Amino acid sequence: MPAPTRRDRLRAETLDEIKAVSLRQLREVGAAQLSLRAVATALGMSPAGLYRYFDSRDALLTALITDAFDRLADAVEEARDADPGADVADRLLAALTAYRRWAVAHPQEFGLVYGTPVPGYTAPPDGPTSVATRRVGGAFTPLFAEAWQQGRLLPSGEAEAEPDPALARYAAELHPGMPPAAAAAVLGAWTRTHGLVILEAFGHLRWLRHDTAPLAERQIRLLLTEIGLRPAAGGPAGRSRPRGH
After folding, report:
1. Residue 196 domain-assigned?
2. Backbone angle region of 209, left / alpha / beta, with phi > 0 → left and psi within -120 to 50 → alpha
3. Is residue 18 part of a domain?
């Protein structure tokens, strides 16, 4: 692959600067009020100049959403892989804890990808945002599959004679042959963790009036224990902290 030209490097630097300024605006006014004209003004660039990089607000939002998913996936993967030889329960704890920590440290970006949809914005079908969001899910899928292969996932409730087709598809995505009851346990643990993270990241646990990190991370441990995965005491959640936290 040929080395990037000076023009390519300058364009990449400008793109990074545009996105950095856009994120600052996002933190100040929210995604719904993101304005290409305001971004251009902050950059000392004409709106026409900015359109050479992003031809619409939606194109800029797509880039920001994709970057947010990718940075979240980076944080999860780094924590997950910090100790490849660790027990799967400890690697899952590290991954889920990194997910929570990134969300709390970057509430605007987390809100952009998991919060209220931006009015008027529609992500391109099967575009970069779809690829990036699948990467986040894919950071966890192999761990749950590994736990099931080890016979450690406790099924959720009684096996149904005719399981929900959506749940059956989800089970097949996690691992061929995984029963829907095991997939239901995974889905339950994931949705409850995600709900807890949303509450904390969006400030809905402030009424506790103290640092919510110990409480949140203990809840993640308990959720894993409920589905048959008991992390070691003082395991990866206490030892490994992704970069930028």
Report:
1. yes
2. left
3. yes
Residues 93, 230 contacting (CB under 8 angstroms) = no
pLDDT of residue 7: 83
Alpha-carbon distance of 53 to 51, in angstroms, equals 5
Q: What is the per-residue pLDDT across 22-81, written as a single tens digit (0 to 9) for each?
A: 999 988 888 888 889 999 999 999 999 999 999 999 999 999 999 999 999 999 999 999
**Token pair belonging to 243:** 């970069």
Instruction: Give me the chain's average pLDDT, please.
Output: 89
pLDDT at 244: 38
Question: Looking at the 3D structure of the chain, how many domains does it have?
Answer: 2
77 and 191 within one domain: yes
End-to-end CA distance of the chain: 34
In this structure, are 100 and 212 located in the same domain? yes
Pair of tokens at residue 219: 């809840």
